[in-house]
Design brief:
Elements (H helix, E strand, L loop, with lengths): L10 H22 L7 H19 L4 H35 L1 H10 L7 H16 L2 H18 L4 H18 L4 H10 L3 H27 L9 H13 L8 H11 L4 H19 L1 H8 L5 H14 L2 E2 L5 H4 L3 E2 L6 H20 L1 H10 L5 H18 L3 H18 L4 H15 L7 H10 L3 H4 L4 H15 L13 H5 L1
Antiparallel strand pairs: 1-2
Helix pairs in contact: 1-2, 1-17, 2-16, 3-8, 3-12, 3-14, 3-16, 4-5, 4-10, 5-6, 5-7, 5-9, 6-7, 6-10, 6-21, 7-9, 7-20, 8-19, 8-20, 9-20, 9-23, 11-12, 13-14, 16-19, 17-19, 18-19, 18-20, 18-23, 19-20, 20-23
Length: 489
């Protein structure tokens, strides 16, 4: 039996699955709102994968080769999915132990009228780093900060911009963040290499942001009030045993990471540290979470297990604080893992069929330099945030499109992963119809166009990554002695 000749896909053929994906994702946003990650987007990825498979088979590919490519694609993301599970358990034990509440508590202590904007950025950043979620930070602490800012006479768009700037810095830099795990998974690097390299551009962007807000704060007259902050502090203090000793947990985890312990054992160590400190400092909270009336050890075991694998929440006398003091554990990461799995199916088919290559070549044809390539990547991420209305798609699709090109130009994958986060993660909240923009506007009660001009960190970040590339600042490349085949392996 003669083998079918495999034909090269045309640009229009290659764009059909992408157009289908974008169209169906836009429909999801319209119909499902901010609940698209519960399954709708994953199904759309599978439907688009089916369309891509039909086109690939019509070009001469057989199903077995496509299936093998899908399996290989999923395998490449398996370490990141395991890390996501451990991140879920770490978030649970850090809440149970009081580490996250302590970060919030001491962060709020520094707020005063003159440096309110500066403090809003810093505290939002600290909480977002600790929780790995810009959404929960904005929906809880952000509301309190917005109320205080308005009482002090600040423009609500300005306050919202400070909160969002800080929260999205934390979302980018936290190893607990799903986007911070997704970007290196798409590019082909590990999370800690990604975070360290990303700080080269994120640091200056954040530094410029806090300088702007700090100067701004000294130019305004204030009406003193601290009622909102006191309520939050009282709610946390009445529920947890807050002590500086709790900061040993993040300090020890940072020390473990600095010692270059691999991500999986490092995160597991952080999880166990959370359990130990929970048993020492928060025995009442542990018993509350466990729901057990048995011995201390029985309650400790059950409470720790629930914090690691499932959803827990600490109830206080402040409803605004309760949402912040909750986490989904490992189970809370399953939708993100599901998204990665289906994204890898789509990417595997598109890559094997040559359609990703065809599209990327059309885009890259005009990007002759490293600066041009990074600019093209950033523009593509923004395009997907506008058209697909989802930050995950703005990371996944460009990540798959550009990964091979970066390797061929001997650029290390952390350059791609950094560009994805500098462009996709932070600009999602600036688009009114994007799930991020629509959610934050609704939660804060501030129109997207009102806070957009003041989201300095989100605006500066994509420009910073492009400037670094054009000026060839700290651009990592493979050595001349490394063969392309070794790089791909």
């Amino acid at each position: 039996m003669l083998e079918r000749k495999i034909r090269t896909p045309g640009l229009i053929q290659s764009l059909i699955p992408i157009i289908s994906l974008i169209s169906l994702l836009a429909l999801n946003v319209i119909l499902f709102g901010d609940d698209t990650l519960s399954g709708a987007n994953q199904i759309v990825l599978l439907l688009s994968s089916t369309i891509a498979s039909i086109i690939a088979i019509s070009l001469g590919h057989n199903w077995k080769s496509l299936r093998d490519s899908i399996v290989k694609s999923i395998g490449s993301a398996m370490p990141s999915m395991l890390i996501l599970l451990l991140i879920g358990s770490l978030a649970g034990t850090w809440l149970l132990s009081g580490v996250v509440p302590a970060l919030i508590y001491y962060g709020l202590k520094i707020i005063n009228p003159t440096i309110f904007l500066f403090a809003a950025v810093i505290v939002s950043a600290l909480v977002s780093v600790a929780t790995g979620s810009s959404w929960s930070t904005i929906a809880t602490l952000g509301i309190a900060l917005l109320g205080i800012g308005k009482a002090l006479g600040f423009n609500e768009g300005l306050v919202a911009g400070a909160i969002i700037s800080g929260a999205y810095f934390g979302d980018k830099m936290s190893p607990l963040s799903d986007t911070t795990n997704l970007a290196p998974a798409m590019a082909g690097t590990d999370i800690f290499t990604h975070i360290k390299y990303m700080f080269l551009t994120t640091g200056p962007s954040f530094g410029l942001t806090i300088i702007i807000f700090l100067i701004w704060g000294f130019t305004i007259d204030f009406t003193d009030t601290s009622a909102g902050v006191e309520n939050v502090l009282q709610a946390i203090d009445s529920s947890f045993n807050i002590t500086p000793w709790l900061f040993l947990v993040p300090v020890l985890l940072i020390a473990i990471i600095i010692m270059k312990v691999p991500p999986l054992p490092a995160l597991f160590a952080g999880t166990l540290l959370g359990v130990i400190f929970a048993l020492i400092f928060q025995p009442d909270i542990v018993r509350q979470v466990s729901g057990s009336e048995g011995s201390f050890w029985e309650a400790g075991y059950m409470g720790s297990m629930k914090a690691m694998f499932g959803e827990i929440g600490i109830q206080t006398n402040e409803a605004e604080v309760n949402d912040l003091l909750s986490t989904g554990g490992m189970a809370g990461m399953l939708n993100t893992i599901w998204l990665i799995l289906t994204a890898m199916v789509f990417g595997g088919v598109m890559e094997k069929s040559g359609m990703l290559h065809r599209i990327s070549m059309a885009i890259i044809a005009k990007a002759k330099s490293t600066g041009g390539l990074v600019s093209a990547t950033a523009a593509t991420c923004l395009f997907f945030n506008i058209t697909a209305s989802d930050q995950y798609m703005a990371i996944v699709v460009p990540g798959r499109m550009f990964a091979k090109v970066y390797r061929e130009r001997r650029l290390k994958p952390e350059l791609l992963s950094r560009t994805l986060e500098d462009s996709a993660t932070v600009t999602s909240v600036l688009i009114p119809w994007n799930t991020c923009g629509a959610t934050q506007s609704s939660v804060l009660g501030v129109a997207t166009w009102a806070y957009l001009p003041y989201c300095f960190f989100n605006i500066v970040s994509p420009f910073m990554t492009v400037i670094f590339a054009w000026l060839n600042i700290k651009i990592r490349r493979y050595g001349k002695d490394e063969k392309l085949s070794e790089i791909e392996d």
